[in-house]
Amino acid sequence: MAPIKRALSSYMIFCNDRRKQVAEENPGLRIGEIQKLISTQWKELSEQEKEHYVQLAAKDKERYEQEKRDNPVEVEEANSETGAQMAAASATACVYQLGRVKKIVHTDPEVGKVSREALIAISKASELLAQFLATKGYENALFQNKRQIKSSDITRAIQSTGSLDWLREDFPDVKPTTQSQADRSKTKKANAAPLPSGASFFKPQFSKKESGTVDNDGVDQEED
């Protein structure tokens, strides 16, 4: 049994109705140019002229809905095929451009022809590696209470992952993480030498002397 045809819009019905005539009237035009001309003609139609195609589209939609009700199994199979096609397209969609990946691969003089499947595999592997390094770098930055991910966080991720030992020569180890600014401030304050007793504002700068007392002007006074 033939698959169920989807309902056409009013514009698509107009295109199908006009395509042959426009092609005959303009034999030198290409398919894309013919379609542009038809699109211009559609825009120039009044709402009343478009109403004819709107009604045809409504009837075609009724036909489509009725065929779906009459053939539920076929509709389910069509949906599953569409889902499989979308999944396949998503699986082959790459963040990195395959042309760029191909150029990088061919920088190795020993590499010959590279198939499209191989380029997709390399691109996908590169995406997974970048995602892994970004996640590990974020974890390192979070552990150090930092707001930004730096190159040193990525380097630590490489140095601490055994399966990435092939990258260690290109990303040499970094120095141990220093204390944060707050920790350094606390350590400096704790290790600071105590102030002399005379430096405190709340402690008297002068004490009683054996020969007398000290007045407000700091001058020794004889005891009566």
UniProtKB/TrEMBL annotation:
Mind naming one GO cellular-component term on file for this protein?
nucleus
- Region Disordered: list its residue ranges: 169-224
Q: Which InterPro entries match?
A: CBFA_NFYB_domain, Histone-fold, HMG_box_dom, HMG_box_dom_sf, HMGB
Domain of life according to the entry: Eukaryota
What's the name of the protein? HMG box domain-containing protein
Residues in domain HMG box?
4-72
Q: Which organism is it from?
A: Globisporangium ultimum (strain ATCC 200006 / CBS 805.95 / DAOM BR144)
- Which SUPFAM superfamilies does this entry report, sorted A to Z? Histone-fold, HMG-box
Q: Which residues bind DNA?
A: 4-72
- Can you provide one Gene Ontology molecular function annotated for this UniProt record? protein heterodimerization activity
Q: Which PROSITE patterns match?
A: HMG_BOX_2
| The entry's keywords | DNA-binding, Nucleus
* Residue ranges crossing the lipid bilayer per the database entry: none
